[in-house]
Specification:
This protein is an alpha/beta fold. It has a domain of 350 residues. It has 19 helices and 27 strands. Strand 8 and strand 9 form a beta hairpin.
Length: 558
């Protein structure tokens, strides 16, 4: 054999040996050592129980203390009862300690922990944000059926939650009401359920700032909500986009409709639009069909087509956080965080964002939410724009909101100012208000039942966020439970319209909110809107006064 071949043979033999060694399976170690598996047999607890029953004095010698010195743990049942009692009454920890027999210090740990557990347990089922077009269409269907507002994907609003000024926070949580607050931003479906909630913005942030801080806003402006495609409407040649609706606090955007400004020059069509939007707003999905379902529900309930939700925000009063300066000081002069929410046609929250400082407005809370960021990036799977019946131009599915939010392609808000009776702008404002009233009712019921939201929470913003999110998920849980629904929201709880007389009967929660100081609305801020967003709102307003799009009773409310 030549030296070269001999060398190759050696190399081949070495490589083969290495491969065999590498491929040889290593012997696995046992998962649990055998003696550890006999814990029940040899544990010291068995010995202690025997000593305790036979020679109690030896226990002291073994442990260097008596069993009497042990502190009994608070049971799961006691933790839940204490938390629900706090949410229902809003009493201080000092007051609750007498009925719960738990120290205020321990309550300060138990209640936020239990609220977080409630939220984590219920959110996937009862606070599910649409992620498909079918889910958005379901929301829009609800708004159309209940509030006669086609293509509506939700009613949007925000509320200031009064808090105690966090130490060292300055004016960080100081809002326009001169209170300290966090802002709750929410989107509600036509059934008064929250579909999106964002809470935590400091109270001093303006309305536009609150919405921009939500992830919802990011998804909206990036076209990531997977909204349904624009559809044709009866009697309209142009396709209409699916939209969200809000009040004057928000900006008019492509998928966000707000009312026409109330001026003396507003026409009949604008007034009709404002009426229809108002109806739908009184009240968020991840696939296009889900969005369409919401939109269909809005149209069936509130006669507002292509509506994906109603959004709004509330200030939650808190104590001033440490070193926060004036960040949480809201327009009322108190410290707060903002709760932003989107509600479907059935008063359920579909999106909630909480945490914005109270100084941020509704629109600001919206921009801070993840929903807004997803909307900006087109990540929400909204349905494709469609043409309203009888029209020619496609319009997007929208959210409805008030003046606190920006008017955009997917967010509708009312026309500003006083509109002439019977004008297109006034009708639109009525229709939008009717759809958006859903989110007002959802917030009203929330504060009426969970009375911890009715007065300032003397807690840190992080704990206030956990408590608020627990309240929101419990709201949806009770609204969707067949047995609990009638007890939670008995007849007369929500606003009701007499379509024959053209009158509105206020829900019972409004009578209970006359002296409410801690769950405050968002301050309205004037802002410019894009030309495209205004065109979309005009298309909706013209549809609402057309033969196909009008409802018989809308002239009675003008």
């Amino acid at each position: 054999m030549s030296p070269i071949l001999s060398k190759k043979a050696k190399i081949a033999l070495a490589v083969g040996t290495i491969i065999l060694l590498e491929s040889e399976k290593k012997k696995k170690r046992v998962w649990v050592k055998e003696w550890l598996q006999k814990r029940d047999q040899f544990t010291h607890l068995r010995l202690l129980k025997c000593i305790q029953s036979c020679e109690p004095l030896d226990v002291i010698n073994y442990l260097r203390m008596d069993y009497d010195l042990f502190r009994e743990a608070v049971s799961v049942e006691e933790r839940l009862l204490a938390t629900l009692r706090f949410l229902a009454t809003g009493r201080s920890y000092e007051d609750l300690k007498f009925s719960c027999i738990i120290s205020p210090q321990l309550l300060g740990r138990i209640i936020p922990e239990t609220c977080r557990a409630i939220y984590n347990c219920l959110r996937k089922k009862y606070l599910c944000f649409p992620s498909k077009e079918e889910e958005w269409l379901k929301v829009a269907e609800g708004f159309n059926n209940m509030w006669q507002f086609e293509n509506c994907l939700g009613a949007v609003d925000g509320k200031h939650i009064a808090i105690k000024q966090p130490p060292g926070s300055g004016s960080h949580y100081y809002n326009y009401k001169e209170l300290f607050s966090l802002v709750l931003f929410a989107i509600v479906n036509a059934n008064y359920e929250f579909t999106y909630v964002s809470c935590g913005t400091n109270g001093r942030i303006s309305d536009g700032g609150v919405i921009k801080k939500t992830d919802f806003y990011n998804l909206l402006i990036t076209d990531s909500l997977k909204l349904p495609q624009p559809v044709n409407m009866r009697g309209i040649q142009n396709k209409l986009l699916f939209v969200f609706i809000g009040d004057e606090a928000f900006s008019l955007m492509t998928n966000f409709m707000t009312p026409y400004r109330q001026t003396n020059s507003i026409g009949y069509e604008e007034k009709c639009f404002n009426y229809r939007l108002c109806r739908a707003r009184r009240i968020v999905p991840t696939v296009p069909n889900g969005w369409k379902k919401i939109a269909n529900y809005y149209n069936n309930l509130w006669n507002f087509p292509m509506c994906l939700g109603s959004m709004d925000g509330k200030h939650i009063i808190i104590q001033s956080p440490k070193f926060s300066g004036s960040e949480y000081i809201n327009y009322k002069g108190t410290f707060s965080i903002v709760l932003f929410a989107i509600v479907d046609a059935n008063y359920n929250f579909i999106y909630v964002y909480i945490g914005c400082q109270g100084r941020i407005s509704d629109g600001g809370v919206f921009k801070n939410s993840g929903f807004a960021k997803a909307l900006d990036k087109s990540m929400l799977n909204f349905p494709q724009p469609t043409i309203l019946p009888g029209r020619q131009k496609p319009v997007p599915y929208v959210l409805v909101a008030d003046d606190a939010f920006p008017l955009s392609e997917n967010i509708l808000k009312p026309f500003a100012g006083n509109q002439d009776r019977g004008s297109r702008q006034r009708i639109f404002n009525y229709r939008l208000s009717r759809a958006r009233r859903v989110v007002e009712n959802a917030f009203g019921i929330l504060a009426s039942v969970f009375r911890c939201l009715r007065k300032p929470m003397l807690l840190e913003p992080e704990k206030v966020e956990k408590i608020t999110m627990a309240c929101v998920t419990l709201h949806n849980f009770l609204r969707r439970n067949a047995q609990a629904k009638d007890l939670y929201t008995p007849p007369g709880s929500f606003d009701a319209e007499d379509l024959e007389l053209g009158t509105l009967t206020e829900g019972a929660w409004r009578k209970d909110s006359e002296v409410l100081q801690s769950f405050m609305p968002i301050k309205k801020v004037a802002r410019k809107s894009s030309y495209i967003a205004k065109e979309i709102r005009d298309e909706f307003s013209e549809y609402f006064v057309s033969e196909i799009g009008q409802v018989p009773w809308q002239s009675k409310y003008n």
